[in-house]
Amino acid sequence: MPAAPGPVLPDLKRPARGKPGPRLVTVVASRRITPNMIRLTLTGPELADVRPKCEGANCKIFLPGAGQGRDDFARQLKDGPRPVVRTYTVRHWRPDVQELDVDFVDHGLEGPASAFANRARPGDFCGFAGPGPVKLSEFYADWYLVAADMSALPVAAAALEAMPRDARGVAVFEVTCAEDRQQIDAPEGIEQHWLVHPHPHRPSPAQEGMIRALDWPEGRVQTCVAGESGVIKALRGYLHQERGLARGDAYVSGYWKIGLVEDQHQQEKRRESA
To answer: Is residue 121 a part of any domain in this protein?
Structure first.
């Protein structure tokens, strides 16, 4: 059955500013990389124009309806109505084989994206749009602060892996269980801390508490900080108002909010920024 009708967005028919519209891509692999994280590998000839080194950039995943056929979904991507769409992060991009990895936090069958990731098998399909700009594309700081919950682990890991090998700083991760810890190819000078918060839909002060307890360094600081909006709001205030960190040196972004689905969260962010 096709996805329920929704508003037709202009970029489904005429991509803005020359950007490609949603591409139809195929799942070539699905694996659980930790107890609460599923990695889907996507491929398709329409990914040929994806730029190299886009790890850490946002992308949009368009989800087919239950039982929807590939041809019908391809028509819907082209002509509308807009399918269910969620925002994710490019974790790995291998242009030589046109394979792209996207990591999904596992919420079981509770949300449409998590349900899709749980059920996806090789040969299944979805839509892909993007990627957007990489969050940290230049590294010029004396010290780096990285902080993320499960939703932001892909952008944090990509930033750490792209850093100069002599980079120094601290990374604070909050995961659902100890087994959700991932191996990240971070510089040796980045001190990693893994906090366990088994109830992610309850507020947690742990990241803020650890960051406030850090010995703030001399010199210029860059950040890559993302996750639940309540935590991010507190950290944004601390970094900008109390520490005086320049906005151009700080990527600080709320990726989701307790109690809201993505569409509601995006509406709230637009209201707050207006």
So the answer is: yes
